[in-house]
Design a protein that fits this description.
single chain; 160 residues; alpha+beta; 8 strands; 32% helix; globular
Length: 160
Amino acid sequence: MIEFAFEPRADDDSWSPDRPAVKADRPEHPELVNSDFCLELFQADLRLVVHGVDLSVHLLGLPVVDFALMLHYATTTLETQSGIAVEAGLTQHVYAFSRDGDSITLTTQWAPRVARLTWPELRQLTDLAKADAFRLITAAHPELRDNAWLRETVGASPAA
C-alpha cells in the first residue's frame, strides 16, 4: 500500500488566495514560470509511505511541482534505463530509483530508507503527484488553471 499526500506549508504564503499569483518584480513578464513553480512557490511537506517504509519529508518543505516533475522524470527515464538518481531542486533531497523488470527500488539518503514498489505503482504515484500538485495550486489560485506551463507539465491528464 502506498500513502501519498502533499501537505501545504502554513509558512508559505504562496498558498494564500490573497497573494497575487504573478511576479510583481517582473513587470515585463509577470506570469509565473517554471522556476517559480519548481524552486520557490507552493511548498509542502510530503507524506509518502511505501509498503510501510516512511519516505516523508517534513523539515524544509518542497515545491509540489518540483516533486511531481522529479517523479515524472524518473519514471520516464526508467522506461529505457535501469536506474537514475534525481534531486529535488529546493531541498536537494536525492531519490535513487532502480528498475528490475516490474520491480522498483527507491532509496533516499535523508533519512536513509529503501522501499520497494512495482512499476505500475510508480507510474500511478507519478500521475497522482502531478494531478494533486495541479489541484492544490489551482484550488488556492483558480486563475492559474490558465497558466500554460503549469497546465502542460502537471495539469495534463495522464495518458490512457
